[in-house]
Write a structure and sequence with these properties.
4 helices, mainly beta, hypothetical protein yedk fold, globular, 33% strand
């Protein structure tokens, strides 16, 4: 699934998400255990936090343990030990981004092509996730998050990503009109009604250069 994305730049964060960005900076491209901004609910207003991409950061795990917690499956998020407490405690978040990367195999090669998934209007968007806090030894709090994925076998765009024969998965892009309703939802079953795909006609997938991840090609296949 999505393990790499482009976060929204600080200079445009407030314009699109109606809250101040975190004070600290973040990278232009995010991978596992990178810091990225997320948005949470803070007494019926939005608050941005800088959080670790990966619900269980590597530094929090014993040396012999290794878990991939960048994505949480909607089907098991309420029962999987890593995620169930945050889900049932309604710790919902938005992950602002400009686009996310997926592997594409349809050119007949055993090696995947790297594709950037974004909106056709090039505007920022937000993906549904859950978050948690960590008590540090110095008394401070740090934060981490995971993105929620849903089955994409029937989605016209996302079902073309990933290896042939494998289940297709997609991130939940939350419509702007639902931002606050998602963040403030206090019922896990109602929260599931938000876990829908954005229509494919509002999305775009373009091949990318590994050396220039922020420069999409002009020839979209979708």
């Amino acid at each position: 699934m999505c393990v790499n994305f482009i976060p929204v730049p600080k200079r445009t964060f407030s314009e699109f998400f109606k809250t101040l960005p975190p004070n600290d900076d973040w990278a232009g491209e995010v991978w596992e255990d990178y810091a990225a901004p997320i948005i949470v609910s803070d007494e019926r207003s939005r608050k941005a936090l800088l959080a670790n991409f990966g619900f269980l950061p590597k530094k929090k795990l014993p040396p012999s343990k290794r878990y991939n917690t960048m994505n949480a499956r909607a089907e098991t998020i309420g029962i999987k030990q890593s995620f169930q407490d945050a889900w049932h405690q309604h710790q919902f978040c938005l992950v602002p981004m400009m686009g996310f990367y997926e592997p594409y195999y349809e050119f007949g090669s055993q090696k995947a092509e790297r594709y950037l998934i974004s909106l056709v209007n090039d505007e920022p968007f937000a993906v549904a996730g859950i978050w948690r806090s960590w008590n540090e030894v110095d008394g401070s709090l740090t934060y981490s998050f995971t993105q929620i994925t849903i089955n994409a076998n029937d989605h016209p765009l996302m079902n073309r990503m990933h290896q042939p024969g494998k289940e297709k998965r997609g991130l939940v892009i939350v419509p702007e009109s639902d931002y606050d309703a998602w963040l403030e939802c206090k019922d896990a079953e109602i929260a599931r009604t938000f876990l829908q795909h954005l229509p494919a006609e509002l999305m775009r997938a373009v091949p990318m250069s590994l050396s220039k991840p922020a420069q999409p090609a002009t020839n979209s296949l979708f």
